[in-house]
Queue: 2 jobs
Job 1
Amino acid sequence: MSDFTEKKLNIGIVCYPSVGGSGIVATQLGSGLAELGHDVHFISYDPPFRLNIKQPNISFHQVELNAYELFKFPDYTLPLAVKIVEVANKFKLDILHVHYAVPHATAALLAKSIANEQKIRFPHIITTLHGTDITLLGRDKNLMPVIKYGIEASCGVTAVSQNLKEDTEEVLKSNKKIDVIYNFYKLILPSRNKLEARESLGIKESDFLLLHMSNLRKVKRIPDLFEIMSKLKNQPNIKMLILAGGNFDQYQDQVEKLGMERQVIIVNNVLDIENYIVAADLGVYTSEEESFGMGILETMSYGKAVLATNIGGIPEVMVDGETGFLFAVGDTSGFAEKIIELAENKSVLQKLGENAQKRAEDKFSQEVVVKQYLEYYKKIMIECN
Ligand code: GMT
């Protein structure tokens, strides 16, 4: 048992199970807490995609969705609230840690009211904000009051970067105390080396391979990646691997129109990302909004430098000139020029990659961040009644 709490905790985690940084962080956190001997109960509509449900101390509780004809829109919040009450009661949860205010904090608060009514002991609710719940949904006047309420009525609230904390305070005009606990990545060693990984992708040893991993949502500005690649067209040895956690079909036409099928390699829905990152030379991330940027951290964790946009929480994850380089959103020429410069200067690239890996280990590793969450749980259990 960890020294951070003498008592084994029963922890409920509510998260989105689909491909996305928040689900990855919630899954890693649950797994890290379970490794320390705590009992962790995941609650969602599907098992989170990177969750090993066979890991000791982990259980998964599925929310069953209904499709009554009466409802034009099937509702998730209500069955989620009912499932939370059931799990909280059966497993005597101490903490209920919800990732994303909408609809998870809302369901947690409804569950708390039901539990109070039924005289069932209810856990302390902690809400972790991940980004779009504030930067997108929080600005929607039809959702803002429910998000604000979810945050203000939670026992504890954390944000994944200082930038997101500040955005939340500004968007919601709330004085609720928000603590920053950064995201983290649990390193998994690749089962193949760089050459083997490249061979499987049809990439030559002499090629310079760029890497982008994301869910391909609009905020990632995928067309900027193609613009960068078209600026590098006279350098056919520069290629780009896109690990697509979303549907790439919408972009296929653009790739074909630009005649870049040989330079842009798409691999869909990969679970063993480590076996692909190992093939790459440099990460490229062109988002117009990013409260943290898990793909950037994952890339850095494997000793790869990153070029990214200077927005949101990205400058908190990477250091300009030390672990990679930052550019204004849309500055595709800046990206392209730096790629050429680094492709020709392997020793600089190597040093940036080493710095990136060190920063990932020192600040954003499982060892560091799971302890921070445990300390936070302990504090909330003492302070919040
Ligand atoms: O918008 C997304 O990319 C999905 C969302 C998620 O659920 O993963 O991402 C947000 O949370 C991640 C984990 O905390 C952050 O790394 C991403 O930066 C954040 N996305 C945005 O802020 C756009």
Note: Residues 16, 20-22, 25, 130-132, 135, 160, 183, 215, 217, 219, 289-294 surround GMT (CB under 6 Å).
Job 2
Amino acid sequence: MTTPRLITVDGPAGAGKGTLARRLAAHFGFAHLDTGKLYRAVGLGTLAAGGDPAEPGDAIAAARALDPASIARGGLENPELAGDTAASAASKVAAIPEVREVLLSFQRDFAQTPPDDAKGAVLDGRDTGTIVCPDAPVKFFITASAEERATRRHKELLDRGETSIYPRVLTDMKERDVRDSTRAIAPLRAADDARTIDTSEMDADAVFAAALLFIAERTD
Ligand code: C5P
């Protein structure tokens, strides 16, 4: 059995796609790219330069300022990237076509030539199976209800010792869903050939097991 060397994992925030992508990458010895962090880095970069993430000129300048070499060497580890300020700025810059264009070649290079001589790559995000790597042999779309995703996010924030108000988290989640699914360019949707997994009632182990089963079916 040959393992496919490219796997994409897309879906809305908080559905568990990052967890699945990391586990698949570790399991197969593949490199992992969390593409959301690229958009978050552009969002934070825009703010750091005193710009407005919704303003194309400001966001495009921040996207062009990202250094692909330093990103490939692990430059996306800044903890600030995980915060809600970065998330909200990311979903604004992500609606600007030129920003997506700048980030596209980096993502495709990573998929075609994964760093550190890895045998393959796992990309997770919103459009990795539809736009970035439409020919990927294995694609997942990981989803869950907005309420469940907000509950998980709320718990994660409280566990980290941050303050969190559930109704606010739910509203933010829904706003980001609407922005991501209704934008004109690369809207969030499942690729036609993606395996959709609804994780509302599943834990991470069950999702991982379901994903491995699908990969085995694909490669037999
Ligand atoms: O996945 P994460 O929450 O880190 O993504 C932050 C934002 O970046 C998303 O809300 C989305 O607007 C944008 N994004 C995107 N395309 C991707 C990954 C993320 O538009 N492939």
Note: Strands lie at 6-10, 31-34, 121-125, 138-143, 195-198.
